[in-house]
Structure formats: C-alpha cells, structure tokens
Amino acid sequence: MEEERLSIEEEYTSTLHTRSNARFISSAKQQCGREMEALFDPQQDVVPADLEKMMHRRTFSEIELAMEGYFDASVEASEICRQLLMNIKITQSNYRSMESFLASISDSVDDDATAAAVTATTTKPPLALEPFVVRSNPFSAATRSNFRRIHDRYSSVLRAIKSSHGKVARKLKVVRAVKKLSRTCLVVACGAAAGVAIGVGAPLLFFSLLVGPAAMALCPFALKRRVARRRSRTRSLLQLQEQLDTAAKGTYVLGRDLDTVNQLVARLSDGIERENAMAKCCAERVGGRFPVQEMVNELRRSCSSSRKLADELEEHACLCLATIHRARVLVIREISKQA
After folding, report:
1. Which residue has the higher pLDDT, 336 or 298?
2. How far apart are CA 162 and CA 249, in angstroms?
3. Would you say 164 and 63 are in contact if contact means Cβ atoms under 8 Å apart?
4. Residue 200, pLDDT above cutoff 60
5. pLDDT exceeds cutoff 60 at 167
6. How far apart are CA 6 and CA 242, in angstroms?
7. d(CA 244, CA 248)
8. What's the pLDDT at 311?
9. Where exactly are the transmembrane stretches of this chain (predicted)?
10. Which of 66, 73, 256, 71 is nearest to 166 (CA)?
11. DSSP class of residue 44?
12. Cβ neighbour number for residue 293 with a 10 Å cutoff
C-alpha cells in the first residue's frame, strides 16, 4: 500500500504540464501586477489557527515537525518565485534598452557607409551613438544560491515526510494485525468455552443460565468501547496518511519544477553576461577599422533567444506558484477533515 500511495514519480511524469496548467499559465500572464500578487497572496492559504492547534493535538511530534517544515518551506519558495518574477520584468526591460542600443549602432554604421560611398573626405558628422550602459544581471550568484538552498530544503522536507509516512503505515499495519489477532482469539476462546461446557456436562447448566445473562450484558459494553477506540485510532492514522500523501506529492512536483527553474536561471544569467561583453565590444569598435555589423547581428540573435528564455522562465515561475498554492490548499483540506 505504501508503494502504491507514494508512486509520485510516475504520477508527476503523467500529469506535468497538463491542459489545466496551460490554462492557468495563460490566464496568469494576462493579469497585471496587482492581480498577480492577489492571486498568489500567501496569506490566502495560511493554515488557520484552529487547524494548527488541531494538528498539534492529534499528530505525533515527528509528523508535526515534518508538516511545519513543509508549510515554512512553501512560504519561502513563494517569496523566491515572486522575487524571480520581478527580476524577469527587469530583464525584459533591459532587453528593450539593448535593442535600442543595437539600433543606434546599426544606424551609425549605415550612416558611415553612405558617407564613405559619396566622398572619402566627407566632413559630415556621424550620428550620435547611444551610450552603452552595462545591464545589471538580476540573476546573480546569490539568486541561484537561493534556488539551490530552497531546493535542498524541499528535498529534506520530502525525506522527512516519507519517513513519517512510513511510520504511520507501520502503525496501521500493527493496528490491523492486532484487530485480526483479537478476532482470532475471540473465536478460539468461544470454541474453548464450548468445549469446556460440553466436557463438564449438565451440572453447570443451571449455573450458566443464572450467570450467563449478566456476563453477556457486561461483555458487549467493554467490547464496544474497545472496538470504538480501535476504529478511532485507525481513522486518525488513515487521515494522517492522506495528509502526508498530499504533502509528499506537492513537495515532489515543486522540487522538479524548481530544478527546471534553476537550470533556466543559470542559462539566462550566462546569456546576459555574454551579451553584455559583446555589447561592450561593439561599442568600442564602432567607428574603428573592424567591421561591427556582423557582431551586432549575432548579438541580436542572442538577445532574441534570451528573451524567449525569459518568457519560458516566467511561465515556469507562475507554474511553481500555482503548484505551491494548490498543494497547500489540498493539505489544509486534508487537515480540516479531522475537525
């Protein structure tokens, strides 16, 4: 049962980037800044105080710590994804500035070529070249370090949740084994009592008729209490198992998404550094002996590719936020079932 419940790797592979996720990304990208903040407001899915008290009251200490770690990590991941979205906006603005700078270089090169074709001694001043300003790289080493840190934290949380899930599963096996053993013992005891009655014979029949009704009145009451306690215990363990299942799936999916985001951030950061170096080289060569237009064209192609990469990164950041929100809501719903 445990392997069946925790087959989250296969489930992730079969459900990643479904139509519902695509619809979410499409609708999310149509929102303005304030609407996006409202949609992903972490306060919307914070665990209510009464549910938190109930979780403390009805769970084991290790499971409680695992769930607290899950909620704390999800809040931190939400904040990092929001910061990432702001950095993406800065990057998109920087690429617009880069396009304007490259256009001014092309205009300057075209103007110089036209003037040289007319006369070699032209005194026409070249067009003013837009000054080159090195773009800031929002995806610095510190940003990538934050992603590695939150990814490591989610990996630790997932291990803790799986460990707690295993312990709950073992407790369930023990409870079910005790229940089965109790039934077996009851059958054996009844059989033994019947055998003794047959062996002793009729002399005790009169005594059995007198004492039997009283014993039958007391035994069901004690038996019902014991059965009720066991059912309550089993139900509580099953609910804990469902909570841990839901948290484990959300943690695993988000960990995979963070892997993808981290790779995209690294590629985009390297592209920004390379393009800054190329732009600086272009600015230094304008008006010199070396042709610069081919380098400008190459830089344009690189910037176009990086802009597409930034758009893809934005989609994945929105997907991460959606995953965090959806998983937290599902876990809170499972906790609420204990009310």
Report:
1. 298
2. 10
3. yes
4. no
5. yes
6. 11
7. 6
8. 92
9. 181-198, 204-223
10. 66
11. G
12. 13
CA distance 306 to 312: 10
Classify residue 310 by burial, with Cβ atoms within 10 Å: 0-12, 13-18, 19+: buried
Q: Is the pLDDT of residue 157 over 60?
A: yes
Binned at pLDDT 50, 70 and 90, residue 310 comes out as very high
Residue 195 φ/ψ, nearest 5 degrees:
-65, -45
Q: Which long-range contacts (CB under 8 A, 24 or more apart) does 44-47 make?
A: 44/325, 45/325, 45/328, 45/329, 45/332, 47/71, 47/332, 47/335
For the segment 123-136, the average pLDDT, to the nearest whole number, is 58
CA–CA distance, 14 with 86 (Å, rounded to integer): 31
Range of the domain at 198: 2-336
Given this model, what pLDDT does residue 268 score?
A: 92
For residues 167 and 171, give the distance between their C-alpha atoms in angstroms, rounded to a whole number: 6
What tokens were used for 81?
A: 């994804």
Q: What is the number of structural domains in the chain?
A: 1
Percent of the chain with pLDDT over 70: 57
Radius of gyration of the chain (CA): 34
Cα 216 from chain centroid (whole Å): 56
| Long-range Cβ contact pairs of 12-21 (< 8 A, separation 24 or more) | 12/249, 12/252, 12/253, 12/256, 16/253, 16/256, 17/319, 21/319, 21/322
Among candidates 286, 278, 330, 325, which has minimal Cα distance to 305? 278
Write the single-letter amino acid at 143: T
CA dist 99 and 105 (Å) reads 10
Q: Is the pLDDT of residue 189 over 70?
A: no
Judge whether residue 141 has pLDDT over 50: yes
* Non-local CB neighbours of 104 within 8 Å, separated by 6+ positions: 127, 128, 129, 130
Task: Give the pLDDT band of residue 177 (cuts 50, 70, 90).
Answer: confident
pLDDT at 24 over 70: no
